[in-house]
Write a structure and sequence with these properties.
Elements: H1 3-16, E1 18-19, E2 27-28, H2 31-43, H3 47-83, H4 88-156
Antiparallel strand pairs: 1-2
Amino acid sequence: MNVDELLDLMEETLEEGTAMPFSAGKRVVDVDKMRDIIDDVRANLPDEMRQSKKIVEDRERIVQDARKEADSIIKQAEDRAKVLTSDQEITKRAQKRAVEILTTAQNQSREISKSATNYCETILKNTEETLAHSIADIKNTRMNLRNATARGSRRSK
């Protein structure tokens, strides 16, 4: 069952509850049945909610991997530059190459971080929109449930 069907089932269960004497609008309902329905609602919430946490974790991992890779490239460049320092001309070329490698590594690191952030932002935005829609559906269902309960209590008077 989808969330809408489960919410309809909740409403039916409330409507089927036994009216309490001298208590307008109050009913006795099967608590275990309601809890089972609520558990089913939770199980049927959009996957985006579960995926959003994984996306944030993936983003952090991607950024950390990019930093490690950049640090490794920088270390390699520094090590290579040290080896080439024996001769002045070689030293100049090594320093120039080290700067190029460092610049490339930093640019790659920034680009990877930017891409990961943009990806996560897009996924989180989509998740937020889905959740907002789901919340609106739940609010509407609750409102309908209250209205149905109010109509039911007016009829029983």
